[in-house]
Amino acid sequence: MRDVSENAIALSVNGLTRRFGGLVAVDNVSFDLPARRLNAIIGPNGAGKTTLFNLITGEIHPNAGRVVVHGQDITGLKPHQIVRNRVSRTLQIKSVFSGLSVGENVRTAVMVHEGLVSPFRSATSYSAVNNRVAALVDQVGLTPHMHTLASALSYGDVALLEIALALANEPQLLLLDEPVCGMGPQETEQTVRKIREIAKTVDVVLIEHDMEVVFAIADEIIVMAQGAILARGTPAEISSSPAVQEAYLGAPEEADL
Amino acid sequence: MTAASISRAAFVVFAAALLAVPTVIPMLASPFWIDIAAEILIWSLLAASVNLLLGYVGLLSFGQALYFGVGMYGAALSVIHWGAGFWGGLALGILGAMLMAAIAGSVAVRLTWHYFAIITVVFSLILYFAALSAKPLTGGDDGISFGAPDVLAFGDVRLSLANQAVQYYTILLVVAACYALFGLVVRSPLGVRFMAVRENDRRAALVGINVYLTRYLAFVLAGGLAGASGALFAFFGRYASATYMFYHVSGEAVVWAIVGGTGALLGPLFGAGLLIILREVISTVWEHYLFVVGALTILVVMFAPRGLAGAWRDLLAAMTRRPPAVAAAPSPPGTDAAPSTPSANATQGD
Ligand SMILES: Nc1ncnc2c1ncn2[C@@H]1O[C@H](COP(=O)(O)OP(=O)(O)OP(=O)(O)O)[C@@H](O)[C@H]1O
Ligand SMILES: [Mg+2]
What we know:
The complex is a heterodimer.
Chain A: E1 9-20, E2 23-34, E3 38-42, H1 49-56, E4 64-69, E5 72-73, H2 79-84, E6 87-89, H3 102-113, H4 127-139, H5 155-167, E7 173-177, H6 185-199, E8 203-207, H7 211-217, E9 220-225, E10 228-233, H8 235-239, H9 242-249
Parallel strand pairs in A: 3-8, 3-9, 6-7, 7-8
Antiparallel strand pairs in A: 1-2, 1-4, 4-5, 9-10
Helix pairs in contact in A: 3-4, 3-5
Chain B: H1 3-28, H2 32-57, H3 64-82, H4 86-108, H5 113-133, H6 135-138, E1 144-145, E2 150-154, E3 157-160, H7 164-187, H8 189-199, H9 201-206, H10 211-237, E4 239-240, H11 247-260, H12 267-283, H13 289-303, H14 307-320
Antiparallel strand pairs in B: 1-4, 2-3
Helix pairs in contact in B: 2-7, 2-8, 2-10, 2-11, 2-12, 3-4, 3-5, 3-10, 4-10, 7-8, 7-10, 8-10, 11-12, 11-14, 12-13
């Protein structure tokens, strides 16, 4: 089981830097995120939020810096190895196995997590897997769509399916990149409720542009701008910070120009 | 009747028809068509190897003839130089092809899409020219021939490939075993990984799949299928030749697989069957039969993008439709549920 002591650190990032040509997308970023909190990262378009996630999950290699998750240094590991270290994420543009049904999507993730590779036994014959799939699909509220092709789901349901995929490895750290982007008010409310529930047992880091959502569910907020951390604090502190107002909240459109 | 039960019935009829070929064909037509049926079975395995890559892990290979050729020479050389029998030659052909695929694949599967397609062609061309120039060993484009060994010699019972029916049933047995194995694998947890990689390689990695290793395994298995095809063809013709390693053979296999329907277990068998029968029928009356093949291929790609297997599945769905079937029905043998083209929904545009 994970360390749940008061001062445990879920995610520690140290001097993380990534350049794309002349652009420094993530610029010497360091922070520790305490476990058992719902942390949010906000910032204008192009601030480097998604790149930060890509660096944490190994999809992009940093030019410098280290990433430590629950005390374990995962810098330089491959994405699939990092997943085995109980780190999961969802993508800004929702990403599932669209030609497979909801059940098959989740079964894939569960089987991989269970380390099943048999080339001969039928994939549907593992009853423990089937149970876990049913439980995960139920957890995100997609049971009525169990046999629906993922490509036939509504956008909001795809986002929920992606969360189910991300939960399959029993993550200790879950990175959500704009989970409610593109959702209607009802779907947003429903998804926010799910995220809150998940955050009771999993350390969640959330990138989100919807300020209402962020201020409603985040325990702590990091504000990024131009690859660096601009401010950090509770929702109340952030909403009253003049620097944040100026760089982000006040001028969201011009911010990335 | 459900789509699944119709499909199962059709499969039983089809299997019975395959078994009946040596007895029924001589009553209706020239026994020459028994050999055509055998040839279709053999070539369909080469198309199946394309299908395993394109239909199940989303890699388009234009170089499967290389593994066909290695399978061919593996069988021929082991019979000629080591006195191997049918089964030994077959096994060595398959193993040789898998070994070749293991070597080429370690480079090729690091690439995707056109880069992958190009490297597979490059590998097959290099080995094609190598085989051409190694004439003392391979016979170059003249090839090498050998006498067909017995399939079974047990006391007084001797089954020889020289007997047309024995040859047909032997080929049918091996081909059926290959498809059975293929079917098992794609429905297994390993097959689940294959399809995840085909659908979305980024998400596949993000659920913990080693995408490179998964593609590599598929590539080696596909090499084995092509090798089985080549070894059987060597025994069928008592002959091996470097010309079969040329890339037009690979290209033909891609066409068979696409016309038959990628992502469906038996799709390549129908694709190879249709196009080989057409070739045999048309080429006797018109030498430019390739025009017909080309036109037909274009028609299939335009009007039945999931190939013959996809059209069959759509037909079944239309026949059995009651409530609007959004849900994916459990797939019957032979018409495995899977979309034809690998979807490129993997990339995130940041
Ligand atoms: N693979 C890449 N190659 C080149 N440049 C990139 C790459 N990924 C990101 N960038 C650039 O890095 C900067 C940061 O991008 P990033 O996607 O991290 O921003 P973001 O904070 O997630 O923005 P948004 O809120 O719009 O999602 C942008 O200027 C972007 O164009
Ligand atoms: Mg982003």
